[in-house]
Amino acid sequence: MLHRRCLASVALSLATLTAPALCSSTFGEEYLNGITWQAPPIVTPGETAADPPSDAIVLFGSSEDVKNWKNISNWTTEGDDLIAGKGAITSKEEFGDCQVHVEWSAPTPAKGNGQGRGNSGIFLMGRYEIQVLDSYENETYHDGQAGAIYKQTPPAANAMRPPGEWNTYDIYWTAPRFSESGDLESPAAITAVHNGVLILNHFELKGDTPYNRPPKYEAHSPTGPITIQDHGNPVRFRNIWVREFQPATGEQTREPFIRDGKKETPISETE
């Protein structure tokens, strides 16, 4: 039987012998895509996930922010809450691809049922609605409940909190693209998280979201406002902010290649 010190010595010797081989196979060749990337901008996150990051446009954070909205004179504020009144409100700022954060609370005590209880809506680009509704123990048609893309798809889960508690929507929006002649080139798409629960995962919209006809696309500007619906219920909103989204950018400055030490081999020569 080998002594423990002998075993340890053998193990160390084996590790020393195999280490160079492992390093060679892992780091010997490197794939490089030939793209020169621009440095991503530095964004300072908020203190919490709910707080706006440094590049966000705050649409409503306090009563002073009513100036950011059109047709808001019939809505009211209470502290840092915005309470739905008569008529829809529309942001003065317009957005294309973006990230939207909205917090909302259904009225308490709960009144009504179905679509008549805590009803509102967030309209991206002023025409594509993600439903706001008190769907806590409140049955209605599924593609009209909270988190639905109205009349197109239900949410994947009902993540509602009880009336009076705050709900959060984090929305990731890809605007539709149209050709110069007005034809649809690519549909709008939405990913949405409700109270930390993924409810829509890159859902491609079939068009706008009306009540009384099928959805359809009509060519429009590449940007549009955020609209919040009035449906006769005093739904509360707070902490509304938007980040315009720009994907990482780079330029293909050379053909993709494999680097092995000082040797560089274009991918086309390896196929």
UniProtKB/TrEMBL annotation:
Q: Which UniProt keywords apply?
A: Signal
Mind listing the GO molecular function terms for this protein? hydrolase activity
Highest taxon, organism lineage: Bacteria
Signal as UniProt keyword: yes
Q: Where is the 3-keto-alpha-glucoside-1,2-lyase/3-keto-2-hydroxy-glucal hydratase domain?
A: 56-243
Positions of the region Disordered? 250-271
Spell out the InterPro entries in the cross-references.
AL/BT2_dom
- Where would one find the signal peptide in this protein? 1-21
Instruction: Provide ranges: composition bias, Basic and acidic residues.
Output: 252-271
User: Pfam family example for this protein?
Assistant: 3keto-disac_hyd
Q: What is this protein called in UniProt?
A: Multi-domain protein
- Cite the source lineage: Bacteria, Pseudomonadati, Planctomycetota, Planctomycetia, Pirellulales
